[in-house]
Amino acid sequence: MWYTRTSRNSQKNLRIIMSKIDINTRVRRLFNYINDFERGAIQIPPFQRAYVWNKEQKIQLLDSLKNGYPIGTILFWKPTKEIKEDLIDEEIQMIGSYLLEEKDSEFVYILDGYQRLSTLFGCFVDVTQTHLKRNENIWKKEFDIYYDLKVDKFELNRKTKTELSVYQVPLYQFVLPDNFYDFQTQLLSADLKEDEKKLYMQRYRDFGSKISTCDVASVDLAGGDVEQAVEIFSRLNSRGELISEDWKVSALTFNKKRNFRFGSEIDKVYQRVEKYRFFISGEERKKKRELILNCIINAFGVYFDQFSKGDYKKLEELCKKPEFIDITLKTTTAIVEAIKYFSEYLWVLDSKFLPYNNQLIFLTDFFNKVENPTSKQLETLKNWFWITTYANYFTRYNLSEQRYAYNKFQDFISNDNIFPIHYDKSNRKFETAKFPAKIDMGSVRAKALGLFMLHYQVKDEKLNIIEVNGYKTYRLFYECKNPNASENTILIIDREMDFADKRQKDLSDWLDSDNDYSKFFISKEMRTAYKDGKTKEEILAMRKRIIINAEKEFVESFNLIYIEE
């Protein structure tokens, strides 16, 4: 069986759906897809998410092509005439910066693979050889990629006036075999060594051959409606690729009148929080997409522990509710407000510094239900954040206790006189984990220390995002026994680099300075010890004690027990 195991009733329903839909598989050359695209035979369904791939994802796809690796199955759908009319989108659509003006009478929609095909079409279609119009600004920003034969890697062309070197070949030149003659002519006349010319020639041939012989598989669905198409494709495994859950919801909830596309709304969240350095990289967005879905599911009153990881049947059920669009739009705004709060009030200057995903879910719930928070509520949230972070709040409790913690937070939302922390025993004090050996993004305790170091520089100052560009990590001593130790780490809020130069490897010169660096845990006693010839390890031990004492005072202000070692 090509579909996953289901109940008898589900299998019966699936057989009914399949009786109305034709499914075929094909394997074709990449240039066949390009030809179909240019003649209007490949179109974008109006519920498709926007193009969101970053440079890393594009380069990874191109590397797969160069190495002859499979690039995954493309999923197409040819709906009935009636369904087509319902899905007609009056907006001018675009794939890979090329505008789609006319539809071939036998066109198909891209269901899954839009990001890949957009990248391929944007990079390999030659604007001088196609009748399609191109948005030059988008093409230059996203798809002007060349293959550098000298270093054997792909690069996004950031040059504006300077021409590329002969060994820097735009990708669209590899599609037509005739272009190889022009390249060869230019290369032979170039002022290069003979062995370099041979190497570049061979790399050009190899990649050109990979492009001309590249096979791409597709699964083609004909007939049925949107819901049936989603049902069929969601069950593909060995002969296709699973459709992402938010894509399925996008298909099922597309609303033409309100221009609502679920997947695109999530992408808008990423765009709106980039200035806070949240979810910037493609890998980070991929990891956190499930977190965004959890925030939305939770907004419907479905506590986020009630479904297992990867099982989003509840999301598919929720999307059938008439209020789904309104709640989703309100929640995505609340997510942005929560991230804004993390940045402005708590100086979480990077999403990797967020201690717990649940903290974002809880805060999203707060901003979803409280439109105009009071200063008292905002201050309580700060205390809640530091306590939940230092107390390992979301890992120390089992599932039932976590629900109590959630309910306690709900009580606070309804009544700001209630403190939002749940204690499983009366008058119990939480303990911190021991002082971390180093500051990394894999440990909540290490993140807590890093955030405290940033907080110590500003105290209760509110972040002005226009003035701050994240943070920088330095070492007091570049060369010492343990350069990555917490006490050797200096985190600096990046405000036009007031205190350090980006090129500096260490900040040991601060120990020779008369400037006040106390907010970076550097004391007069440390300076004196440095001038007296004390070892680096002795000076770092002094700094560790300063950090511990300062952090202990801070932690104990929240009625927590501080553990040093």
Order the strands across the largest sheet as they lie in space: 1-10-3-6-2
Helicity level: 40-55%
The overall average pLDDT, rounded, is 86
Q: What is the domain total for the residues? A: 3
Alpha-beta content class: alpha+beta
Largest sheet: 5 strands, mixed
Q: Which stretches are poorly predicted, pLDDT < 50 over at least 5 residues?
A: 1-12, 14-18, 237-243
What would you call the shape? flat
SS strand fraction? 5-15%
Oligomer state equals single chain
The count of strands amounts to 12
Over the alpha carbons, how many angstroms does the gyration radius reach?
28 Å
> Kindly, what is the distance between the CA atoms of the first and last residues, rounded to a whole number of angstroms?
57 Å
The number of helical runs is 21
